[in-house]
Amino acid sequence: MPKELVAIAVRQPVLRDYEDGPVPDGHVRVKVDFGAPKRGTELTMYRGSRGAGFPMGLGNMCIGKIIEIGKGVEGFSIGERVAGYGHLKETHTWGAGGVYRMNDRMTWKEAVCFDPAQFALSGIRDGQLRIGDYTAVFGLGAIGQMAVQMAKIAGASFVAVVDPIAIRREVALKTGADLALDPTTQDVGAELKKATGGKGVDVAIETSGIYEALDQAISGLAWGGNIAYLAWSKECKGGLDFGKHAHLMIPNIIFARACSDPNRDHPRWDFGRICDICWKWLAEGRFQCEDIVYPVEPFAKSAEAYEDMDYHPENSIKLGVEF
Asked: 144 with 121: CB under 8 angstroms?
């Protein structure tokens, strides 16, 4: 029988059997080859907060080939390579309208970076990053990594990155960052001011959800600069002191979320347009995704890999799974 990865309770991932029924009209069935979970929202729910329910499917996107086509579906063929949303399981049955076609050059790692690309794009746009700006990206999971590359595409003249995990800083430098800072050993605000001739960064992109990072972003910001806050924040129990810098620097803290319509640029922009642009650019190979999806583990060991992603974030950027 095919297997799927689910959490049966808080922080208890297991592989379990499931059965596929007939393919409904308007749907296609896909044999999955690769997939990836989502560290932010998904991991928060896996840990038992934000109204999580169990059993809970673990994983965010899957890539595979079509093996069955339901009645009424046109334009797809058996063996075609596609991607879609869903947890990690050996087969998926998706409505044809929710399936993303992959061209011949597109890699599976590019495809699983689709979701983080959406939120990175939203942060860049809502943060009002403009050509020539000094920029800093806080948190170098997949969203932060994509934001680094998008900041360069948007015309940032300088991009600093901030993360305590060395491998994440290394990948960001490899994909375009100009300066990498370790917040556990360096004064981030002072280093950002030093690197920008005392001005500070025009735009900070905060993806970590760590309140110390938001505090550091404010301290390294130029007067009247923007902070695009992308992370799913939790209750603040310390690490943030608005009185230290904020009342002097008057930062604009802008909460950004790609899928919250109406968009700030409504009606010209909406979530659908963000998705279309991100998929198009990923399919064209505009981003370097190879090193972002790391490590890649076999599906048979996905429960153990998921636990490691949870308890040892220093070992991964965006976990990939190979079936």
From this structure: no
Q: What is the mean pLDDT of each run of 10 residues along the chain (323 residues)?
A: 97 97 97 94 85 90 98 96 98 97 97 98 97 98 98 98 98 98 97 98 96 96 97 87 86 94 95 97 98 98 97 96 98
Whether residues 45 and 101 fall in one domain? yes
Judge whether 259 and 126 are in contact, CB under 8 Å. no
Q: Determine the pLDDT at residue 39.
A: 86
The residue range of the domain holding 215 is 116-255
- 8 domain-assigned: yes
Q: What is the pLDDT of residue 50?
A: 64
Cα dihedral: 87, 91, 97, 99 (round 10): 70
State the Cα angle at 47 between 46 and 49, rounded to 5°.
95
In sequence order, what are the residues at sequence separation of 6 or more whose Cβ sits closer than 8 angstroms to the Cβ of residue 153?
286
- Residue 187 three-state SS: coil
- Within 10 Å of residue 97's Cβ, how many Cβ atoms? 8
Angle at CA of residue 309, ends 303 and 312, nearest 5°: 125
DSSP secondary structure letters along 62-119: EEEEEEEE-TT--S--TT-EEEEE--SBSEEEEEGGG-EE--TT--HHHHHTHHHHHH
218, amino acid identity: I
Other residues' Cβ atoms within 10 Å of the Cβ of residue 278:
25
Given a contact cutoff of 8 angstroms between Cβ atoms, the answer to whether 302 and 322 are in contact is no
Maximum distance among all Cα pairs of the chain, rounded to whole angstroms:
64
Predicted local distance difference test score (pLDDT) of residue 190: 97
Determine, yes or no, domain membership for 81: yes
> Rounded to the nearest 5 degrees, what angle is found at the Cα of 95, between the Cα atoms of 13 and 45?
30
Cα–Cα distance measured from residue 257 to residue 122, given in angstroms and rounded to the nearest whole number: 6
Same domain (yes/no): 134, 158: yes
Positive or negative torsion for Cα 167, 171, 172, 178: positive
Bridging pattern class, strands 134-138 and 221-229: unpaired
